[in-house]
Automatic annotation (TrEMBL):
Family: Belongs to the gamma-glutamyltransferase family.
SUPFAM superfamilies (UniProt xref): N-terminal nucleophile aminohydrolases (Ntn hydrolases) (SSF56235)
Superkingdom of the source species: Bacteria
Ranges that cross the membrane: none
Protein name: Gamma-glutamyltranspeptidase
Organism, as annotated: Gluconobacter roseus NBRC 3990
Length: 472
């Protein structure tokens, strides 16, 4: 089978209409416990106009957003309510997570998304940070890959202006968020090391020895200024313009070792997905370089260990999509072990038209390097040269043209196994298992108009839908 792959360079002009590091081991992720919240919707002071003429069906579901952090899920759901599609909502959710969950989803990191539309082959968009190449930094950072990846996804699949989707995150950073249980748990896990950095302490600290707690208000004015610059000057400014110079200079002062060329060369990749068909169900999984998708796919088809499959894949030296698809088709999973992997977070989105998006993002360490890129307010992601690659895992299942399930997970070493097990359960209409450290966010459907969101009962996420979508 032929596979397509291409990269995109983000234009420098403002966008309008579309034409481990040495950070201490204590910063590795710990699972947050919490509560599945009820669905509601709120976007403070934000207006946007959709380019999509199709309105959401009266009285029907506009779609569902499920994420590990409730405020970000609400932002995504409001985008659906205002006429955006799943790609628009996923973009807004990811940008909001950069404000509400900067421990795992800061703009200094990267990730991967799977996009599926009815009747079309699904696509994977992968946006992984590059290691900095400048010498002398004591806390090596990776490049900020997320904005270019999200821009590529929204350019190809979205229906509203990208700038309109930056506005909700900007608003949250400026007016303040309520610290969630998830962010509070992450802060508690890394408190002493994070507070050692003056800039990080100025944002997240409460005095010299404590951090903000769940329920506290947290404003991030410097991050708001960074987002305003992107909203006005465009995403390209972060990679080819004046904002790139600001970001690189700040990263160097924070020991990150980045330079302008590192930012220019940070390019997202769009490919076909890994695919398999069993029992009349077509399943698509994230493809390399997001190799957690291969592990999840082999877990789904064979029941083998996803961790073992990915360990064998990484040891083989193979990197191509064709080789990964061949491994999946053969059912040869291999075995091996992986070191402790970085923290991540995930989210899934559907809309009324049957489009589905599933994403996982990471900073290659909890709170990345633990340092802030100066006046930008961005938490610097850790260099991929110093940490193992996270298991970015997601899947979409369809029965003929109908959506069956949209699945993504975090949970470090167990994320891919969790996606594979959830996909097997969805294919057989059995309850999704919630065992081990894997944390599943899923949307399960019986026909495109009957979908419900599901968060992991051990997490503190939110499933935001229009009817009873949030019930497990």
């Amino acid at each position: 089978m032929a596979h397509r792959q291409h990269q995109i360079s983000t234009p420098d002009a403002p966008q309008g209409r579309r034409v481990s590091s040495r950070f201490p081991a204590a910063l590795m992720a710990t699972a947050a416990s919490g509560l599945l919240l009820g669905a509601c919707s709120w976007m403070p002071g934000v207006q946007f106009i959709s380019n999509n003429e199709t309105a959401a069906p009266a009285g029907g579901s506009i779609g569902t957003v499920v994420a590990d952090e409730p405020q970000a899920a609400l932002i995504g759901h409001d985008v659906l309510a205002r006429g955006g599609n799943a790609a628009d909502a996923a973009t807004a959710t990811a940008l909001a997570l950069g404000v509400t969950l900067p421990s795992r989803a800061s703009f200094g990191g990267g990730g991967a998304c799977l996009v599926s539309r009815p009747g079309e082959p699904a696509q994977a968009i992968t946006f992984l940070p590059r290691p900095g190449t400048s010498k002398g930094g004591d806390r090596p950072a990776g490049t900020a890959a997320e904005f270019r990846g999200l821009y590529l996804m929204q350019l190809h699949y979205g229906t509203v202006d990208f700038n309109d989707l930056v506005a909700p995150a900007l608003n949250l950073a400026s007016t303040g968020i309520t610290v969630s249980r998830t962010l509070a748990a992450d802060l508690a896990a890394v408190r002493p090391a994070l507070l050692a950095d003056d800039n990080a302490r100025a944002i997240f600290g409460r005095g010299e020895a404590t951090t903000v707690a769940a329920g506290d208000s947290l404003a991030q004015p410097r991050l708001a200024g960074f987002l305003e610059r992107i909203r006005v000057a465009g995403v390209g400014d972060l990679y080819n313009g004046a904002l790139a110079d600001v970001y690189v200079t700040a990263a160097q002062k924070a020991g990150g070792g980045l330079n302008d060329e590192d930012m220019r060369q940070t390019l997202p990749v769009q490919t076909a997905t890994l695919t398999t068909r069993q029992g009349g169900v077509d399943a698509s999984f994230l493809a390399p370089p997001a190799d957690g998708g291969l592990g999840a796919a082999l877990r789904y088809t064979t029941g083998a260990s996803a961790q073992g499959a990915v360990a064998a894949w990484r040891a083989s030296g193979n990197t191509t999509l064709a080789a990964a698809q061949a491994a999946l088709d053969s059912g040869h999973s291999g075995n091996g072990t992986l070191p402790a992997l970085p923290a991540s977070t995930s989210f899934v989105v559907t809309d009324h038209s049957g489009m589905a998006v599933a994403c996982a993002v990471s900073e290659n360490n909890l709170f990345g390097t633990g340092r802030i890129a100066g006046s930008t307010g961005v938490v610097l992601g850790a260099s991929p040269a110093r940490t193992p690659q996270p298991l970015l895992s997601a899947a979409v299942l369809r029965d003929q043209r109908n959506l069956r399930a949209v699945i993504a997970a975090s949970g470090q070493n167990e994320a891919a196994d969790a996606v594979g097990d959830a996909a097997r359960a969805a294919a057989h209409d059995t309850p999704i298992p919630h065992e081990g450290a894997g944390r599943i966010n899923a949307i399960l459907c019986h026909g495109n108009d009957s979908c419900r969101g599901s968060t992991d009962p051990c997490a503190a996420g939110l499933a935001a839908g229009t009817t009873n979508d949030s019930r497990n």
